[in-house]
Amino acid sequence: MRAHAFIVGVVLAGTACLSPLAPAAAQTIKIGELNSYKSQPAFLDSYKKGWEMAIDEVNNAGGVLGKKLEVVSRDDGANPGDAVRVAEELTAGEGVNILCGTFLSNVGLAVTEYAGNKKVFFLAAEPLTDKITWQNGNRYTFRLRPSTYMQVAMLLPDALAAKKQRWGLVYPNFEYGQSAVAAFKEMMKAKQPDVEFVTEQATPLGKIDAGAVVQAIADAKPDGIFSALFGGDYLKFVREVDTRNALKDSVVLNLLGGEPEYLDPLNDEAPVGWSVTGYPWNEVTMPANKAFVAAYQARYHDYPRVGSVVGYLMIKSLAAGIAKAGSTDTEKLVDAFRGLNMDGPFGPFVYRAIDHQSTLGAFVGKIALKDGHGTMTDFKYVDGASVLPSDAVVKTLRPASAD
Amino acid sequence: MNWEGLAFQAVDGLASASGLFFVAAGLSLIFGVTRIINIAHGSLYMLGTYIAVSLASAIGGPLGFWGGVAATAIIVGVIGALIEIVLLRRIYSAPELFQLLATFALLLVINDAALWLWGPQDLLGPRAPGLRGSLEILGRHMPSYDAFLIVIAPVVLCVLHIVFVRSRFGRLVRAATEDRDMLGALGVNQSVLFTAVFALGAFLAGLGGALQMPREPASLGTDLTVITDAFVVVVVGGMGSIVGSYVAAVIIAEVKALCIGIGLVALGGVSVNFSKFTLIAEFLVMAVVLVARPQGLLGRPQIAVRGEAALEAPIRSASRTLTVFGIAVLVILAALPFLARSSPYTLVLGVDVLIAVLFATSLHFIMGPGGMHSFGHAAYFGLGAYGAALAVRWFAAPMGLALAAAPVAAALGALLFGWFAVRLSGVYLAMLTLAFAQIIWSIIYQWQDLTGGSNGVLGIWPNPPFDRLPVFFLLSLALVAAGVVLMRRILLAPFGYAMRAGRDSPLRAEAIGIDVKKVHWLAFAVAGTVCGVAGGIFAFAKGSISPETISIDHSVNGLVMVLLGGLGTLSGPIVGASVFAILQDFVMQETEYWHALLGGIILVLVLAFPSGLVGGFLRIAARWRRP
Fold it and tell me: What's the whole-model pTM score?
């Protein structure tokens, strides 16, 4: 039985050894970053490049408050349980009081909840669910990307302009897809009371049976289609629509469909004419964007995606927030972030004091082909502030305890 | 929805069935002959798509596509043979199921290798030259490639069938599926046969993956989605039956296609969206089939494989040294909040390790001494976690009450599902437990109003004084220690002996008056209940809970922990869970390619300790004692 003793001893010793060394006197400002790098590589690879570039820019310009920024990056395991442990490791083990990142809605919400409970600053970069800033919002959590509600509202004018009565819906069957479709239905009913939803396909995330879904939608003969598909599901859907010669006479709206992450793998099969939100990185002529693209390409010999912009702005926001607060104190940082004005590749935006949502927008336009690659045409930048509901409505959505 | 539309969907469903068939046929063959549950089979399929896309875009044209598909199948077949020769052959003599651990590690390694080779972005392959267009059927367009797929699967099925009926190789494969030991006794070279079968299975997976190129992009997520689908098909069709795999693939593809085709329907004033059932359709089919016909549609009842593993030593009560040592460990752990005052993260990780220990120990309770290999143990963990979380959310229950609700919810689930599960054995039992876990998962996932859907339940924090980490750690320690000791006590009581008797020799156990089914059913319920406690602690430790806790990944993690420690000893799961939890936490911090690192470490452990960590150490200890 000595062996038993030995093994358990080893395990115990292992546990004890994990106690990290005492942190050295802080010459840097540490930021804890966590994301689902393994589970969502297509989006997060460019996101990582984006924040790495921002870190170097900030530090080369002398850092913040005379200190360099340092990001401690971790994989969050793509599930809330691991994510909370990683968040605890970052705060308790690495001693950070600023967290940022996350991609999936449920992971983002779990970290939001953790941040609120433990009074840790959290900037949710990617997750789209409205609940992060509204229903489950708290004092310590801010969000960078336009939420599901905002993205839907950006596409709404195209849906209304089409003046179609019969609509078909297709979406991945989880928080993002469900709330996108719910928001779309509600907004359409309010603005166009005669609207009719003739089919609704909720597909398992990442496992769409595209042929059958496209066929079922075509059989319902809708005049317009609202889709919230992305990633592999989007690719399969687009290809089946084309192969089956389906939906020829329908207007198609696809949330996120113009983001290079999801559009580029299609190459010359990009669905021309679909209305999408996205980022036509090489078409946007704003000087700030051109400078950003040039710097990014010089550094990585690759072009930026939406993820790059999000990662970049996440670190830039934190740097600006810390500078404005004049300290890394959590409460002061929260106060500084409320109403923090930022300038980025897409132009100025602000972290709203009322719900901690940034007013970063997105580009809305139609997909076109250029030199055998998908891009966007007739696009315009829609400021996030213009699509958010009124303050009175927001106040009813957000718990009073959040402020 | 009209009948023509449904008929068209039904024809179209056959194309999806073909894709499922290729990967399932290979898996079924491999399992039938080698009894290996090849978790990495989906990775071979994924490699098939990646390699085919690379070849097709590098060479281009019809040669690039069709030649690429053929070349891909051969390449993946060779990879399969290599895996068998280099890795699996070394561990055939390990206890049953242990090979699963090796293939799980392979899955992790292959996934990271693909990320390194092909990058993170999905790769959409070219369309099939010559089959780009579509045929018109029932006034609708069916892609000609789909028509090709509909034809090719039955053709391959016929070829395989003829090979198995006519050739010597086929006879050997069938004989090995039927009774491997007898085949060995007759002097057949098993290692050549195993390599050949593994290569053939991999070839089929590669072919299946390559043929999906025009329909699906090569993507890093395919390995896991495909492997679960393939398992369902294999089990529904009957392990080892190729025809059964095809029939099952058709049934499942048809059910899904019809769910999508029916779409939104108003049933008595309530509108039901049938497309949502695609999430769970295959598992419902599997559960129904397994309950009605335990060996699958065309499978034969499984013959127990005596295997090459040595007989397991009986469990004995702890020696005095071990008891003293166990108490010492508890004392040290209880002192941990004071010892680790400078590093609070130790306690955070400590709670996670404790939860993992209870999870793994309860799984081991039915897997080891019970002989019931549950592949869906996360279900009871999740039921416990949701039981606690929903008690807080809907009834504002205080923490104590919510923690008590956890085992109750898990026990109810385990009693219900266990009743069905104990009627089966071996891999069929494993898959039925998996099906139940998936059904629970999808109910929780879909029932948004009650459970919060994919977002889960938020805001479940412990009440004071347990909101302080050291106190919460001590509470977890007390609960986990109590659970482990309780299960140990049960195993050493007459009930535990009856359980093991039922595992080792059901006939004799029945003959001396043990109601084996009932004993195993109760054991299942005990394991589920204890696992529910782990879930309850988890909910309060994290402050939120979401459906991932019930996912297949989590169930597989449990299996990995138990197998890593070794099935044969009671301390196995404790050591396995601790090592796995700490290891995972460690590698996640260390490297970008942490999947590969974790897989590599597990592979090394598998090769070094083919009877699990504890078994390996015991063997070394025995060698010391008798030099």
Answer: 0.90
